[in-house]
Each structure stands twice: as C-alpha cells, then as structure tokens.
Amino acid sequence: MDTLRIRPRRLRASAGIRAMVRETVLDPADFIYPLFIVPGQNVKEEISVMPGTYHLSPDQAVIAAKEAYDLGIPAVLVFGLPEYKDEQGSSAWDSNSPVQQAVSLIKQALPELVVITDVCLCQYTSHGHCGMVENGKVDNDSSLDLLSCTAVSHAFAGADMVAPSDMMDGRVAAIRSALDERGFSHVGIMSYAAKYASAFYGPFRDAVDSAPQFGDRRTYQMDPANAREALREVALDIAEGADIIMVKPALAYLDIIRQVKDNFSLPVACYNVSGEYAMVKAAAANGWIDEKRTVLELLTSMKRAGADMIITYHALDAARWLRECNKA
Ligand code: PBG
C-alpha cells in the first residue's frame, strides 16, 4: 500500500502556516456600521430587541460615528425615526428630520468618514409601506418622486452615497436623474438590488417602528425561493446607474452573494440584518455559543461568498476583536 503522500493537514499544522494559506481575511475596512437616529438631544437608548445597538440623537450619532471611524471602519449607514408620519412619508425629505441633521453633523465632524443614507419611506409613512399606497395597494410610479426627493434631501445634508431599500421598480434610475439634476452627480447609489421579503427584518421593524399596518412587503420584496430573479434585479439596477449592488439578508443568501459576484463586476455589499444579529446575541447571552468566534466566522463566510463589504451591527465589536487578534 502506498504511504499517504497527500496530507492536507500539513497546511494546518501551526498558526503560522494557517495564516500563510488563509484565503479570506476580514478587516475593519470591510464593514459598514448602521446608525439609528431619533429626534432630540443627548439620547442614547439601547434597542431591546438588538442588544448593543442604540437609538441615538444626532449629537450622539456623531460620537458613535467617531468610534467606528477610529476603529478603521470606513462608512456608516444612517437610518431615522422621524418626529411625524403621514400618508406620503413627507418627514423622509424634511431637511430638519433626524437623519438630515445627523448626516450634516457627522460630515462636519468627520469629513473622511463615508456617510451612506437609507432611502425608504416605511419609517415615515403612517401605513408603514415602502411606497405610496393608492386604493389599498403600493403604487410603484408615484413612489419614485418621493424616493427621489428623499435622496436629494440626503445629498443636500451631505451624504456621500444613498442606499434605496424600497424595492420599487425604476427607483435607481429615478434617483440618479434627480441627483444629477440637482448637481449631485458625485453622490453614489448603493442599491439594495436583491432584497428578499425576509423574516429576518423583524427586530429592525421593532427598532424603527416600520412594520406595515396592513398586508406585507411581498409585492415588492423578493421571494426567498428565487435566485435567477436576483440576477435580473441586479442587472436592472446596474443598467439604471447603481454604483454598488447589495444582497440582503446575508446569511440565508450566501449563494446569491456568490452568484452576483460571479456574474457582475460592480462591488458587492451584503447586509447582515437585524434578525441574524439578534439570533447570535440571544444565543450568546444564554451561553449557548461563543459570540466572538461565531460573529467572526459568520462575517468571514459573507466575505468568502463574495461580499466586498458587509453592513453589520457587529461592526464595532468585530473591528475590536480583529485588532486584538492582530496584536496577539
Ligand atoms: C427599510 C429597511 C428594512 C431594513 C433595512 N431597510 C426593513 C424592511 O424592508 O422591512 C432591514 C434591516 C435589518 O433587518 O437589519 N425598507
């Protein structure tokens, strides 16, 4: 019998060799850190369904953004809870709303930090849908102007990039034209291109009070069963002018991230969403899993699947852990 000549274990024999052959290396520069902005001053309240994340007033958001920046995280993604809601979601493009205030304060304090804003209507509409509701249905085309207005108001506040998450058809093109017309051709679009109708958004909807008041989001967000449709959505958003394309959620959609990466040349972002975060936090709080190892393994899997950047509530912790690893 031949002796075993091929022994994969040789390349696992020590930390040094493992480091040499490691294919995927996480870096704080891979992360985008989400911020939840509420009205007021000096507010920092933990979000119960997402322990370790906070509702922040614009002044406090600057402090959180600086923490991220100092850890080597290049970007934040800004979400808002408005002071008022109406049928159209007009607080979404109100220049005095918490998001617009926070964006301008963060850009003043940290001009190098990339500030991305979530463009959607669901936090701002009384019915909680991501677009205009007409005759009990979410109307696509009348939503486009409202989304464009919102994107332009974020650009006026100083956003470097806008991230439409509504899943209306044609919104990337509409937002691109609106930005260009107002002199914001330099403002980029990170489109939530393949966004699925997912149960994993539950904690987020609690956190920002954006659950739909009737029906669900399945007439605009994608069916979790579909992969080819994701490629079609991505192709459309690229044709409409997207600069970065996103797959969301991440964990149950690693195959989609990989297919998008293999089929298109634009940078790919993925969103490690609230439900994914909450699962890890709950299990770790019960002592059922090791939080640090679990988080780093999950984030590595997203990067290995093809994500060039990961939007994650774990960003600050993960960046700290990566720094410790590098020192050790
Ligand atoms: C708004 C929006 C949602 C998320 C990001 N933007 C919720 C939804 O579409 O229902 C989810 C983020 C998360 O779960 O972390 N449309």
Q: What is the second-level CATH architecture? A: Alpha-Beta Barrel
End-to-end CA span: 43 Å
Q: What percentage of the residues does DSSP assign to strands (E)?
A: 15-25%
In percent, how helical is the residue content?
A: 25-40%
Structural class: alpha/beta
Number of domains: 1
Strand order of the largest sheet: 1-4-5-8-9-10-11-12
CATH topology, by name, is: TIM Barrel
Shape: globular
Taken in chain order, the helices and strands follow as HEEEHEHEEEHEHEHHEHEHHEH
Overall residue-averaged pLDDT value? 96
CATH superfamily membership: Aldolase class I
- The tally of strands reads 12
* Low-confidence sequence ranges: none
DSSP helix count?
A: 11
What's the alpha carbon Rg, rounded to whole Å? 20 Å
Cofactors, ions and other ligands in the entry: ligand PBG
CATH class: Alpha Beta
Largest sheet entry: 8 strands, parallel, barrel
Pfam families: ALAD
Binding site for 5-aminolevulinate 1: 205, 217
Active site: 195 (schiff-base intermediate with substrate), 248 (schiff-base intermediate with substrate)
InterPro entries: ALAD, ALAD_AS, Aldolase_TIM
Model description:
This protein has 328 residues and is α/β, with parallel strands linked by helices. It has a single domain, classed as Aldolase class I (TIM Barrel, Alpha-Beta Barrel), CATH 3.20.20.70. Helix content is 40%, strand content 17%. It is built from 11 helices and 12 strands. It has an 8-stranded parallel barrel with strand order 1-4-5-8-9-10-11-12, surrounded by 9 helices. Strand 8, helix 5 and strand 9 form a beta-alpha-beta unit. Helix 2 packs across helix 3 and helix 8 packs parallel to helix 10. It binds ligand PBG. Pathway: Porphyrin-containing compound metabolism; protoporphyrin-IX biosynthesis; coproporphyrinogen-III from 5-aminolevulinate: step 1/4.
